[in-house]
Amino acid sequence: MHEIKNQYIEKQGYHDVTHTHHQGHESASHASCITVVPIFNHLEGEQMEEIMKVTKSTSFKKGEVIYREGDISDLLYIVSKGKIRIYRLSESGKEQLVRILNPGDFTGELALFRESIQEAYAEAMSDTDVCMISRNDLQEFLLKYPTISLKILSEFSNRLETSEKQTTRFATEKVDTRLALFLAECMESGDGPMEIELPMSKKDLASYLGTTPETISRKLADLENEGYIKQKSGRKIEILDLDGLLLV
Amino acid sequence: MHEIKNQYIEKQGYHDVTHTHHQGHESASHASCITVVPIFNHLEGEQMEEIMKVTKSTSFKKGEVIYREGDISDLLYIVSKGKIRIYRLSESGKEQLVRILNPGDFTGELALFRESIQEAYAEAMSDTDVCMISRNDLQEFLLKYPTISLKILSEFSNRLETSEKQTTRFATEKVDTRLALFLAECMESGDGPMEIELPMSKKDLASYLGTTPETISRKLADLENEGYIKQKSGRKIEILDLDGLLLV
DNA sequence: CGAAATCTTGACCGATCTCAACTTACGTGG
DNA sequence: CCACGTAAGTTGAGATCGGTCAAGATTTCG
Fold this sequence. Notes:
The structure is a homodimer. Chain A has helices at 7-10, 27-35, 45-53, 109-112, 135-144, 146-172, 175-188, 202-208, 213-225, 242-246; strands at 56-60, 65-67, 75-81, 84-89, 95-101, 106-107, 121-124, 128-134, 195-197, 229-231, 236-239. By secondary structure, chain A is an alpha+beta fold. Chain A folds into two domains: 45-162, Jelly Rolls (Sandwich), CATH 2.60.120.10; 173-246, Arc Repressor Mutant, subunit A. In chain A, the strands form three sheets. Chain A has a four-stranded antiparallel β-sheet with strand order 1-8-3-6. Chains A and B meet through strand 5, helix 4, helix 5 and helix 6 of A and strand 5, helix 4, helix 5 and helix 6 of B. Chain A binds a DNA duplex through residues 174-176, 201-203, 211-218, 221.
């Protein structure tokens, strides 16, 4: 897979402005932008080569907006380096952090399969490289290799499940519980046995959990006073009593 | 399309218990259980016939549970008659109404494309007929006719968009606003120019909007006092000032 | 018609937001 | 590598929103 040459994916970008094009490191880093994606990682070499032919690469600098609400977008963006912040504005103008994309994650899917515009914002949190596939190229590919559709459907199902679960939490749980559940989920996908590192600032966490930084600060202090957790330096938190935490 | 015979879809049900099988009215009513579904309504006669061969039909009486959290489900359910209530229980045991299915709507999709169990509950709100397709049959069909996958992807995109928008509302808007937005959306899909009929009881509406019946009652009374709406008999509400309503 | 469910209204209280002041951490440029 | 400015985080006090409990009115449906 790593033999795929840059020439296949470097042609020209879709964006004709501001963005500097990916400058082409070693080919392995390019390959990863596709092969790393769960949707595609079962492809055979030939199919992989085919989809990489229609893939373009672009870079965004920290803080740059990749798309915004109202954009007519028909690109699927796959993160190959960096982090992207996906957020929405509610009807009354308040911002909510929806998710953070890491290398291998993708976005743009909501506008990809329907005639519509973006309803969210995507912003590079650091210098970021993305690969892009246009709607037409992707759909052609899906019709040719239908198993990929099933992969995408599976991914959509998961995301839908997550989103609906999240909605139910917002609808029925108070901040304590939402925060505790968030910490518990960090544990699952986590590093050390009983220590986690928050994947975002507390400000972003507040936005993600639908509350304010002040409340996050207080609730974490409460959890610490009650002996469930211990806040360490940086964004690290030691979980002292996971079971207790989940009964909050 | 209407010539499709009952024999194609009446064989035996997947459920070998309690549920009485669909008793077969005229074939037109059967055809509608499939042809009415947006995913399938572009099919040619031949394909339609093929999918109806693997479709089974079952009835549920009011109050019966169609699936529950934890069920290993690999069926797609399509409502042909009646109403189905989809709800979830949060981690702390509180119920939230997720959606109400009407004829033509489908459910079960979340467990269909991934190895997983149901995480929601589906309950017949009235005597209900559903058509069912098994995961294997559906996937086979999708691989054979890839354009249907694109239809389903489109449907999933829409639902994901709706769900994420809903999450953001819960995260950032207060009850007043959520209620006002709900009423406004009833208008869009509504009957009369300035009159809507709530599609559910106020108790269910409270559950759907993540609040309590008491609060719904009070907020509607407030909106009425402020001259934005007028509550009529039944579940009808006259919208007097839509613009004002949306600024609440 | 009557039981049960839904809906309404009031009183009270707790959770969380807002505003404000302050401290701490971080990135940038000299 | 340090100093500074800005952003992030903390903490307190007060206000508000919305939930809970309770009683009563109304509707629905068998």
